[in-house]
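FORM 12-B: Structure-to-Sequence Request
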């Protein structure tokens, strides 16, 4: 058997020089189409079914190709002149393994290799540019060593081929001699039929029978060798069945792991839905807080307007008292006072409306307080959501670990699959060899049947000779003849047994092939499911990352809202203090004793300058009735303006005669830290940013 395989390999190696590959570099760029140049010698007759394939170094059969391209039909191969051809390999089907070596092989329509190239590898453009010359030199040295080893192996194989050819010639000569002997025996048998009582012919026949017995013994030895080979094949099949059982167990474990992953993914989906609901609740809570802040601002503005209206009412009462004293002298002022009264009534109506709005706002404030109570519950839910998010992160890490373990297991199973495929190819080759052996055994059986017919003819001749009166009968020759008959019967039984064993081996080989196909399908299905789980896990990771980003944004918004609330509370406290201070000052001003500015209207005035001054004061009163206090002097008004001067809470500078809006604009013009309210007007931009970032750290 080994000699047969070596002869087949040598026959294929002698054909490798019929197609010569040229201009093969040490490496090709991956993801780029490549052209393969080769020349067809006169020793090969091209066929449209020929193909050029890329094989990994160490291939065994022509089915181990990575990719192939059909050869263009060459009609210009004329005479003994070589023809140069080329083939294009697309970038999509090229191998991606950078560490492995490959070679081009020209395979004809009969699946025989007619030419092979020197080995090469595939590299990425970056790696090819960064490779140093020393590595290239090492690769060249390694490839040269491999080429030298191949040449040595080729020489050894050529030597073995020569020896095998010599052995074949000797065997053929021996077969020819045996055929000549058989012909000679046939001639002697015919002579035996003709000659009846020649003892010398009988002795020659006995010698020939002895030679036949020796030949049958040789046949028995060959059959025993075949039986040993069949036993080896059975052992290999048993080992394959054991490995198949192990692979089935591994598939079952993988299916269990996949089911667990699916359950975990379902759990993650449910937790994701809960997180989405929590995020929606947080958004609603933020909207409620914003509405609450707007209501608080409206309430403050209403309080300020109400206080201004109270001041206006007090001033209007004083104006009424003054108008009762001056009705006799100033009729024009009465009309203005009536207008003022109508305006005040309108303001009172507005005040009642505003009071109603304030009541509604108070109700809304109560509702907002209830919303604040719900906010506390929402904060608790938010903390629970954070805990759940941490748990989900842990589960995600565990899932990543499991996916990595499964990828490692798949990587470990892939070489086993390749090994099982190689073993299946080996089994197929072994089955083909067994078929060849069966054919040879059939031929030997036919030869034995021919020998049987000859023996029957000899028996007939011997029976005829026994019937004839013979004077000299050799008892030893009869015993030898009977022994030969027994050996022939044993050979028959052995042939029947070998045929049965060969049939059983065929059936077992077919079963093994079916089991291998089923295993391949199972492994493909597991690979598909593992890819699907990887895709699902990647999608879940993306969704979790998006949720984490959303949660971080919500946390940042919550922190910003807290800071804004603190700032608003501080501003509210400052405003309350200012309002209380203004009230105290206003009460002090009212409590102070104001001297009479106007003289008695019923008294007679003789001084004309006094009359002029009274007229001027009356005009001033008419102008100041809308907003001013008629009982205060101009000096006291200036003092009040000085008392009502506003002060900046950052730089602590007072601004007399400025409104609250202008003061806020001034305060916003300062560069203040949003965390510690430090004034940073004198700082540079870089120092200011460092100060702000120090609070975040």
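FORM 12-B RESPONSE
SEQUENCE OUT:
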């Amino acid at each position: 058997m080994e000699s047969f395989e070596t002869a087949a390999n040598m026959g294929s190696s002698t054909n490798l020089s019929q197609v010569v590959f040229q201009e093969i570099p040490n490496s090709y760029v991956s993801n780029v189409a490549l052209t393969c140049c080769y020349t067809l010698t006169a020793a090969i007759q091209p066929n449209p079914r020929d193909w050029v394939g890329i094989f990994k170094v160490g291939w065994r059969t022509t089915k181990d190709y990575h990719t192939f391209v059909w050869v263009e039909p060459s009609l210009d191969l004329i005479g003994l002149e070589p023809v140069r051809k080329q083939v294009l390999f697309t970038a999509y089907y090229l191998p991606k393994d950078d560490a492995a070596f490959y070679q081009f092989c020209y395979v004809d329509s009969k699946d025989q290799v007619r030419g092979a190239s020197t080995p090469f590898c595939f590299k990425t453009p970056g790696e090819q540019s960064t490779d140093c010359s020393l590595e290239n030199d090492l690769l060249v040295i390694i490839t040269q060593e491999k080429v030298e080893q191949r040449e040595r192996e080729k020489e050894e194989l050529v030597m073995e081929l020569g020896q095998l050819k010599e052995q074949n010639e000797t065997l053929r000569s021996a077969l020819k001699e045996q055929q000549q002997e058989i012909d000679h025996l046939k001639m002697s048998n015919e002579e035996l039929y003709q000659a009846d009582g020649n003892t010398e012919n009988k002795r020659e026949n006995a010698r020939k029978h002895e030679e036949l017995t020796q030949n049958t013994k040789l046949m028995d030895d060959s059959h025993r060798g075949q039986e040993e080979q069949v036993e080896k094949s059975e052992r290999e099949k048993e080992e394959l069945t054991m490995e198949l059982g192990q692979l089935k167990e591994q598939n079952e474990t993988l299916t269990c792991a996949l089911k667990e992953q699916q359950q975990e993914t379902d759990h993650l989906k449910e937790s994701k839905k809960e997180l989405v609901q929590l995020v929606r609740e947080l958004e609603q809570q933020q909207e409620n807080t914003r509405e609450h802040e707007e209501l608080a601002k409206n309430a403050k503005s209403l309080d300020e307007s109400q206080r201004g209206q109270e001041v206006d009412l007090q001033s209007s009462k004083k104006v009424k008292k003054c108008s009762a004293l001056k009705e006799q002298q100033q009729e024009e002022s009465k009309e203005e006072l009536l207008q003022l009264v109508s305006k005040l009534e309108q303001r009172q109506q507005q005040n009642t409306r505003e009071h109603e709005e304030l009541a509604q706002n108070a109700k809304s404030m109560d509702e907002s307080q209830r919303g604040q109570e719900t906010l506390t519950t929402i904060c608790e839910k938010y903390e629970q959501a954070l805990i759940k998010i941490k748990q989900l992160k842990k589960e995600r890490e565990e899932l990543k670990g499991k996916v990595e373990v499964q990828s490692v297991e798949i990587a470990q199973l892939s070489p086993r699959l390749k090994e099982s495929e190689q073993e299946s190819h080996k089994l197929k080759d072994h089955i083909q060899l067994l078929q060849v052996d069966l054919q040879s055994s059939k031929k030997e059986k036919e030869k034995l049947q021919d020998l049987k017919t000859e023996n029957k003819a000899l028996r007939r001749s011997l029976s005829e000779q026994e019937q004839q009166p013979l004077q000299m009968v050799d008892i030893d020759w009869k015993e030898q003849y009977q022994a030969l008959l027994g050996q022939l019967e044993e050979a028959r039984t052995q042939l029947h047994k070998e045929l049965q064993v060969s049939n059983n081996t065929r059936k077992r080989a077919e079963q093994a092939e079916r089991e291998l196909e089923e295993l391949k399908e199972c492994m493909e299905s597991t690979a598909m499911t593992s890819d699907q789980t990887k895709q699902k896990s990647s999608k879940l990771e993306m969704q979790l990352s998006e949720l984490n980003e959303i949660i971080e944004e919500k946390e940042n918004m919550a922190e910003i809202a807290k800071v804004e609330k603190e700032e608003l509370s501080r501003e509210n406290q400052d405003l309350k203090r200012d309002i209380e201070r203004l009230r105290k000052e206003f009460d002090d001003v009212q409590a102070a004793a104001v001297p009479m500015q106007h003289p008695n209207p019923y008294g007679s005035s003789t001084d004309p300058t006094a009359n002029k001054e009274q007229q001027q004061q009356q005009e001033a009163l008419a102008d100041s009735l809308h907003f001013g206090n008629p009982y205060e002097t101009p000096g006291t008004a200036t003092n009040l303006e000085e008392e009502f001067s506003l002060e900046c809470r950052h730089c602590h500078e007072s601004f007399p005669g400025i409104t609250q809006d202008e003061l806020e604009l001034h305060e916003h013009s300062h560069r203040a830290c949003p965390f510690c309210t430090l004034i940073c007007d004198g700082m540079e931009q870089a120092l200011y940013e460092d100060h702000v970032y120090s609070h975040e750290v």
